[in-house]
Amino acid sequence: MTSDPFLSVKPGPLDADRDVVVFFEPLGPFAEGRNLHLLMEGQRLAEKLGGTLSVMALDDVDLIPLDGSPCRVTTLFLLHPSGAPRAPYPPEIAVRAATALLAQLRPRMVLLADGDFTRETAPALAHRLGSAALHGVRSVRVESCPESGRRSGPDRPIAAQERLRVVYAQAVWGGQLDVEVTFPAGTIEVAGLSLAPVPSPLAEHEEGVEANEGILPTRFDTVRVEVSVESGFSPPQRLSLTPPDYHDVDISYAERVLAVGAGAATRELLPQIERLADLLRASLATTRPVVDDGLLPKERMVGQTGRSVAPDLYLAFGISGSPHHVAGFQEAGTVLTLNSDVRAPILQFSDMSYLGRAEEIIPLLVARLEEWREGEGS
Asked: Residue 30 and residue 242: Cα distance in Å, rounded?
């Protein structure tokens, strides 16, 4: 039987109605961008609530997002699980360390970037805090409670500083619908936000900017917290890591992506497109007009209101290249495009472009790849 973790430092509680804590994602291909966006969203919500923003991170986390961030972070809590296996820490260790600190802080909400780390840690973290965890949260708003302006008695108004309500829009039914969720008062709200990687705020500024321009971060306190994990605690042992099937993997993690827009995704051509994706071992993706036509599901949509992808190879066929779509693949490695319009905006974001009609080129590509695979015996 194990005991509760011991904290080397026991910080005072935060404001349970207003203060926000973001829990940084550990190292990974998307961690830096997600953590930066997480900071920005945490700052926005802290301002709406009239509270403060704090960061909680394990000591194996890259803290680069704090460098150059304009967000007003008050405290960085750096967790060191003593007696635990060496970093990177298993999710079970992360949960125990974070729970021990959050039980002391008692903030209004804990925000995480929706990903593998959050899916493994958030439910257990919320359970230990007596709460629940939301995943796939696409937007968050702060509003006055419905009871605003009512009186608690004939001559007694409610408190002037009423508790604001936070409403989370969570994706359901494969992203086709959103459901709005709120937490009861007194509960630590745990939410995994669906975030697109964003560039550093310093990226668009030249070297030598003045600090008073609001680009450099404000000073914050760093509190290193040792969390004891006794030797009797043994996390589950991972035996292997199996790569996901490209057919059904979340396209955010796909190594190759074949994206088709309205200029290619017709009902007649779709079987050829799916065959081409199979031959390339690529995950199929699309744009909003194709989703609106019901040809492909919304979880396959790339863009600001869909998924952000960062594959080694991104193939864009019949896509004009609206800013909303381009924002979703800007982290891709090599971008190849096929388009019949020489003026299509997507061409300027391509490493190599081909001009041609999709209904003519795609069947030829399928035939050539099938011939090549038969010759290779694979």
From this structure: 19
